[in-house]
Amino acid sequence: MKHSIYIRLAVWLIRADIYREERALERKIKRSAHDIPWDNPHLLRDIGLESDGRPINRDQTDVSVKSASKVAKIRQKFSLRIPT
After folding, report:
1. Rounded to whole angstroms, how far apart are CA atoms 22 and 19?
2. Residue 60 has pLDDT above 60, yes or no
3. CA-CA distance, 55 to 23, in Å (whole number)?
4. Each residue of 17-35: b (16+ CB within 10 Å) or e?
5. CB burial readout 40-69, b (16+ within 10 A) else e
6. Model's pTM, two decimal places?
7. Contact at 8 Å (CB) between 79 and 72?
8. How far is residue 20's CA from residue 10's CA, in Å, rounded to a whole number?
9. pLDDT in tens, 18-32
10. In whole angstroms, what separates CA 11 from the centre of its chain?
């Protein structure tokens, strides 16, 4: 015995509405996963950012220390070369 076309249509529309709601919820969850709480300094520190958006412990001294060690390594390599 076949169901009425109206019942089948109602079931199909309800399934489509549930599917649409699930997709909307998934989009909302994905968007909220990338929201950064810029107004809360404690949460920013938890994720490793300063209040102005810079990464924590990223000072200019790190760059100068890295460059100094690279220069020292290059000098060491040039001094180790055997002139022939």
Report:
1. 5
2. no
3. 34
4. eeeeeeeeeeeeeeeeeee
5. eeeebeeeebeeeeeeeeeeeeeeeeeeee
6. 0.42
7. no
8. 15
9. 999 999 999 988 887
10. 39
> Dihedral of the CA atoms 48, 51, 55, 67 (nearest 10)?
-140
**Which candidate, 26, 46, 27, places its Cα nearest to that of 36?**
46
Contacts of 47 (CB under 8 A, 6+ apart): 36
Instruction: Look over the chain and give the mean of its residue pLDDT values, rounded to a whole number.
Output: 82
Average pLDDT over residues 64-73: 84
Looking at the DSSP bridge assignments, the partners of residue 49 are 55
> What letter represents residue 28's amino acid?
K
Q: Grade residue 17 by pLDDT with cuts at 50, 70 and 90.
A: very high
Locate 5 and state its tokens: 């076309």
Q: Enumerate the β-bridge partners of residue 55.
A: 49
What would the two tokens of residue 1 be? 């015995």
